[in-house]
Write a structure and sequence with these properties.
mainly alpha
Length: 178
């Protein structure tokens, strides 16, 4: 097993976050850097971007988008956080369980939510083929221009949060928010 050393942390194991190895490493006290502490200005900017992206969007839609992106990015930390947030906001267990396969369970989601989920997938997996015109056009039929811009910003923020959580080895169930 290889390790990396930074001035602020103990050696970090080179294992995938969320794996048994990552959990064992976290339990053994070997952690990666604390992004919020080590990159304060960037962290604050990301919090501001995240808050701005949510403005004017339906809170239930926000959570569905964040859950779908976190599923696609394999971010257990963010998935755990946002499914819990969605439950607290009154989201149904059925919709939470089916968001991973929403295309096969469309009747659980409004056409607007389906358009948002399709755009979320395209933007999250942008390297696989960009954002197809038909996906963008469908979203544009359900969202006013300003709201669509907010949705795009939201997808960008959750993708950034997923990458920060994965890079820093965040462990699902250890949400430090107050």
């Amino acid at each position: 097993m290889t390790t990396t050393q930074t001035p602020h942390t103990a050696p970090a194991p080179s294992v995938a976050p969320g794996t048994v190895g990552a959990i064992a490493a976290a339990e053994a006290g070997r952690t990666r850097l604390d992004f919020a502490r080590s990159a304060r200005k960037a962290f604050r900017a990301l919090i501001g971007f995240d808050a701005a992206a949510r403005e004017g969007l339906d809170p239930a839609l926000v959570e569905l988008v964040q859950i779908r992106s976190s599923l696609l990015n394999h971010c257990a930390y963010c998935l755990h956080m946002h499914t819990n947030d969605a439950r607290k906001a009154g989201e149904s267990e059925d919709r939470l369980h089916l968001v991973a396969v929403w295309r096969e369970a469309r009747h659980f989601y409004t056409p607007k939510e389906q358009a948002a989920l399709a755009l979320t997938e395209a933007l999250t997996l942008v390297a696989d083929g960009g954002v197809p015109d038909e996906v963008y056009a469908e979203a544009a039929t359900h969202f006013a221009e300003a709201e669509l811009a907010q949705l795009i910003a939201l997808v960008c923020t959750i993708n950034t949060w997923n990458r920060v959580a994965l890079a820093t080895g965040k462990v699902a169930g250890t949400d430090e928010r107050a």
